[in-house]
UniProtKB/TrEMBL annotation:
The keyword Methyltransferase applies. Residues 48-125 form the Methyltransferase type domain. InterPro entries: Methyltransf_11, SAM-dependent_MTases_sf. GO terms for molecular function: methyltransferase activity. Residues 1-20 are annotated as: Disordered. Signal peptide: none annotated. Keywords: Methyltransferase, Transferase. It comes from the Bacteria. SUPFAM superfamilies: S-adenosyl-L-methionine-dependent methyltransferases (SSF53335). This is Methyltransferase domain-containing protein. One of its GO terms (biological process) is methylation. Pfam families: Methyltransf_11.
Length: 259
């Protein structure tokens, strides 16, 4: 059963604390949105589980958002409908109520992955679409040289892709999602070509894994990155990334159709 914090957050991250300003840094990227849109196919009604501040909710669809955190629900823009206060593991909807179900950057927050995915499968007649990160690839990112415990945390919290596909069942496809150099959705890898952005405390706070690292240690990580940017050491080792239009990192999209 999910444990819920003071603001309703489910899982291990307290979005009542770290969610402030989330919508300023985690703005949906249109190219990633297009990948999600293609995966949803011709669905007209969609449930968005762990919807947060409304990222990747298409206004062309009838989207029902589910979000347990009050602070995240409060950041939803006025043009989007209010989110339902519920958790993935217990969706308050009838079997097959929606054409499709989606979730983005959320499954690692759930206390019971299998239960949440089975609920998404239960309420969706068609595709279930999951945007997540492959934990087997998380540590391949250059940030691991500077903030190893942050990416160790990410790798620990993200479920294995195999666990997601097995829980969903049916016909499943796993698609790597290239990250554009000017990505507007500020997860860690979105700054692969813009390392200076990770010196911004707000940018780091919008990536929940940073909240699991002691503040003093996180500052040490940031100081080392700052020194290497000033000295040119980062550019010596990774500068080619600044001119690379896309980055193939750990971001994946999983699409499951019913059996």
């Amino acid at each position: 059963m999910s444990e819920r914090r003071a603001d309703g957050s489910a899982g291990d991250a307290d979005y009542g604390t770290i969610g402030t300003g989330y919508a300023d840094y985690r703005r949906p990227d249109p190219r990633i949105a297009e990948v999600i849109s293609r995966a949803l196919g011709d669905a007209r009604t969609v449930v968005n589980v762990g919807a947060g501040a409304g990222s990747y909710e298409s206004e062309a669809l009838r989207v029902t958002a589910v979000e347990p955190s009050a602070s995240m629900r409060a950041q939803r823009p006025a043009h989007l409908p209010p989110a339902v206060d519920a958790v993935a593991e217990r969706l308050p909807f009838a079997d097959g109520e929606f054409d499709a179900a989606m979730t983005t950057f959320s499954v690692h927050q759930w206390s019971d992955l299998g239960a949440g995915l089975r609920e998404m499968r239960r309420v969706a007649r068609g595709p279930v679409v999951v945007l997540t990160c492959d934990p087997a690839l998380v540590r391949d990112f250059w940030l691991y040289e500077y903030a190893p415990l942050v990416l160790d945390t990410e790798a620990r919290r993200y479920p294995a892709v195999r666990d997601v596909t097995e829980a969903l069942g049916g016909t499943v496809a796993v698609q790597p999602v290239p990250i554009p150099a000017d990505c507007t959705d500020g997860f860690n890898e979105a700054y692969y070509a813009r390392p200076e952005r990770l010196l911004d405390p707000g940018a780091r706070q919008a990536c929940s894994a940073w909240s699991f690292v002691d503040a003093a240690l996180a500052e040490q990580y940031t100081d080392r990155l700052r020194r290497d940017l000033v000295s040119g050491a980062w550019d010596e080792h990774h500068g080619a990334l600044r001119g690379q239009p896309r980055f193939n990192g750990s971001l994946v999209l999983i699409r499951a159709l019913p059996a």
